[in-house]
Amino acid sequence: TTPHQYILRMKILKACQMIVEAKMPISEIANDLGFYDQSAFTTQFKKQVGETPLQYIKQRGLKKAT
Predict the structure, then answer these.
(1) I need a surface site. Which of 18, 28, 34, 43 has the fewest CB within 10 A?
(2) Alpha-carbon distances of 50 from 25, 41, 54, 64, rounded to whole Å
(3) pLDDT digits (tens, 9 = 90+) for 5-19
């Protein structure tokens, strides 16, 4: 694992935590974690987790923040 891959993985793990605990909008989470935009965040999230942030929310029965 490269340092870049490690940092990216840690950001995605933090995003998962923020989705569950803070119930923040996806765009705000992406911004807070330093992603260029929500699309870039969603792409990396899906690569790491295997589903989009919205799918992650729905699979766990969480309410989407607005």
Answers:
(1) 34
(2) 20, 13, 12, 19
(3) 999 999 999 999 999
**19 Cβ partners below 8 Å, 6+ apart?**
26, 29, 53, 56, 57, 62
Tokens standing for residue 29: 């989470």
Give, for 1, the enclosing helix (H) or strand (E): none
Neighbours of 61 (CB within 10 A): 6
Q: How is residue 6 annotated by DSSP?
A: H
> How does pLDDT run across 13-51, given as a tens digit for each residue?
999 999 998 878 999 999 999 999 999 999 999 999 999
